[in-house]
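Narrative summary of target 7.
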Amino acid sequence: MASLIALLTGIAVAAIGVSCHPQCLDFLPPFTPSTGLSYCSQYAHFTCCSSSDDARIRSNVWALNASIAAAADPPRCREIMKELSCARCSPYASHIYNAELTGTATTIAGLCQPYCLQAVSACGMSLIQNIAGYGNTTFANTSQLCQKLEPLDNDYCVPAVRNFTQRLAQMPSSSPGPVGRLNCLCVKEVLTGLRNPILAVNAGDGSHRLFVGEQLGVVRVLFPNGTVADEPFVDIQDLVVTSSNEGDERGLLGMAFHPNFTSNGYVFFHLNVYINGYLYNRIIRYNVEANDTNTVDRSTGKTILEVHQPYGNHNGGEIFFGYEDGYLYVFLGDGGSAGDPLNSGLDRSTLLGSVLRLDINTNSSVPYAIPESNPFAGANAMPGVRQEIFAYGMRNPWRCSQDMGDRARNDSGRGRIFCGDVGQSRIEEIDLIESGQNYGWRAYEGTQCYRSDQCAVETSTRFPIWEYPHSVGKSVTGGYMYRGCLSPNLAGLYIYGDFVSGRVFSLEEVSNQFLWNNTELCFGGSTTCNNGLTDLSSARNILSFGQDESGEVYILATNFASTTNNQGKLFWLVDPSRRGDPTKCFDRFGSPVGATEIPAHFTNGGTVDGDLSTGSPSSADRHGETPLAVMMVVLSALLPTVYQVLLD
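Modeled conformation, tokenized:
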């Protein structure tokens, strides 16, 4: 008896909302279980239970054998006990248990009045009272008890709620890949109090830390449990050139961890600096502290590259290491001003307006080497052409990323490079960056001719995979290909946005046709995004995107783009209509995603001004070494109904 009550026990929540969409007791969306449900099979298509939950529910019902055998109608009573126990697997569990309206789940599923009367008749009033948690309460009659057990919204009483579930079962099969694209999305505020946040980078070391960088030169460490390190990962405000002016494009612009970070501790930064009064883009390498991988050792700085910036804008700034080749990719704008007055985009004698590829695994006397496979190096070297160039013809590549690859399809797409290139006066574009390609600027702005004298001679231009006019948005912010597990409807979508309009879009490749379909993503209101989820209305200027080790996508945004405004936020992109099986979502290191990322992001949230609810982690946690069992105990306390099964 105690085990059944424990199984059905309620949970408290921090926020309350009203909705009629599918939602589990943890306020996360239902999912399709990787392994089918054999006991609560009526919920096998779309559910809130894993196969482990299903097995435990069966055991708990069988534990009631003695009570059921003594009932007036044992066969019917057993059916009812199964129906009530399996209700927590319903896609509408939060409604059935009143959690959606009250913030706390009831002990027993809400019963339709006639069904409750049948349950009392078949099982006896004592058994129903006990499993409902009213064993010591006196009721005048059966009707009074059944009134108490009705849900607040009778549309969701058992068994009438089956009508909703049957409708869901008639939906298309939720096989891997995009399903239900038209559903509106939500976001979860993960971190607030940020000043122009433009970086959300993972170390790729299995620690599940997210490194959140502000434009003025401060990077914070966000741990898997949702807390932020007391001290910054790095503070290089003394080096970084920026200002408090709205829209200043200078600052800390990029960050990347060496592929062998776990052994060499190398981390790289792309920033603007002054040298003798002139503005430069600088790539600098630091080591982390020998005994603390959450802190950079400023004394270890080594400059890798410096490029003079003739103007203060169009600095580019992205850097990352190629998944497949291990080389450092550097993205530079055309040097600034309007219309590329120096023709830097098409001039291969300068590094400006280009994507560079560098081999930084050299001896200490040489900052970098030229990979022999670079398109203008080795046998393809040409007089006056910089061999560092991987691709050119860029105006202002703002936020570029690599595709992590589709793990369900042998990492298909892994290593593809996507870039948002900010336009001049008419067109914003998304480019797929490939070796040796010319992306057209300043001859072309997107597919539109910008300089007629140059369009005639630039016949090898690689046009964007997508573009949009300034009636849609005026400053593209490149994003990431979604490769996470928690929102399967987003699988294979490249998520990007626009800084000015605040709109978010997705690009989906049309198989084998080299075409892309673009869709604007909608964000739900309070009836869809509730209980800790929200929309982007509090921060509409989309500064950047990020991605964690599990492939989940983040949005960094603010309501006023200034380095002195602390209203910037880090959001986690969430599909409220469907999630992946939380017991089967694994990162590339084989760790369950649900053991780290889900609870932290859905329950904590924090600020960077010391106003965190849980404080800084212990030294073991800070170094990504917290034993999984310890972490699971913490998370079990946060979300008992969903994660208890992982501890069994």
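The chain has a mean pLDDT of 85.
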